[in-house]
Sequence to fold (316 residues):
Amino acid sequence: MKLSEIAKKIAANFSGADLEISALNSLKNAKSGELSYCDSPKNAKFISECKASAILVNKDALNLVPDTAVAVVCDNPHLAFAILSKDFAKPLFNEPKPSQIAQSAKIMPNVYIGSNVKVGENTIIMAGAFLGDNVSIGKNCIIHPNVVIYNDSLIGDECHLNANCVIGSDGFGYAHTATGEHVKIYHNGNVVLEDFVEIGACTTIDRGVFESTIVKKYAKIDNLVQIGHNCEVGYASIIVSQVGLAGSTKLGRNVVMGGQAGSGGHLSIGDFAQVAARAGVSKSLAGGKKYAGHPINELGEHLKIQAKLMRLAKKS
Fold:
């Protein structure tokens, strides 16, 4: 799409030569021929090193755009990006290509297999599963009934995906207009499950906006868990039922999260941390400690607070 068409679509201005834009991408990963955007002051520090051919900015960030890129100026870059994301979304269906299914794999009836799908040795795909285009599944996996694996998802070896889990659905991302409408952000990333991962029944793992949502080796995720876009679940972590991770949460290795615990977005939880059931993670947490409560505290401090509250309640 020509940059002039883009500018007209989002009511933006730019000066300089018209360009052909092939894709949208983040400030960190954008390449020549692509359009990026800066949606907040905290991301402005990445503008100067961005390799994109054009960058969506508001007038306050105009002077930060390097000479190698065209500044496309609009009032709300985040909203403009959301509007454009539909035009640059990956197609739901690709040109048919043959799939590579290992001879030892077992595919039960009523399984949908898309274009260019790969299924490894001794893997079992049970009835009603959906494998979208460009999905890759390793060896010795078990995909239980009615599992949905969206386009471009990568599943490692020895993985178990239990019934009705959804891998690679769009993340819950929207930009908002001045009058309160919500504009969908289309996600072009994917989900990567490394080896020996288990996903519980009815769990959902959303694809990244540009990059991957990653579940690392030996992680075990229970039923009814929500993993938001661009999250990273660390090596051998355990996530118990009804946990919710907001977008871009990063768990270190061997993190344990108890049932119904949740995290805010763009937070990190360090290696070997333990988060008690129903805790609310509202800030990044150091590794090697136990946490509980909302607002969250180290477990010992949380128990002291609860004891003091009980004494106060008895006095009253």
